[in-house]
Amino acid sequence: MKIWVDADACPGVIKDILFRAAERAHVHMTLVANQSMRIPPSPYIRFTQVAAGLDVADKHIVELLEPNDLVITADIPLAAAAIDKAAHALNPRGELYTKENIRERLSMRNFMDELRGSGVATGGPAALGPRDRQAFANSLDRMLRKYAPPAAPGP
Question: Is 110 left (phi over 0), alpha (psi -120 to 50) or beta?
């Protein structure tokens, strides 16, 4: 299992949780974004900068995904593409996207896009709170226990 992070919109507190988890579990993680960002020095954490443009980072992630990899994203079309490639997708609030719920999420996203396109103010998601961070950390830990090989003991 590798972790792929749709990093342009990923909250900093979620990245911090991911950095610690990659180190602890010895899981390779790549953050993908169209603007430069700092990452901690680690043999497990990489950053890939892609060109600016609509869905460029998403396409890069999908192109490199392998079955059972994990994508961290709030982007529902990216989550759907990951699931189509037999990978997993988790949003920053700890919700795991699945074959069972992704089509409903896509339909709701498209409906909200239509409302916004017709001028209806729909608002955005609520701010990420402590419960969301804890839910994310718990979901990530479950995924790592299930799909990542056990970390080798340290020196």
Answer: alpha
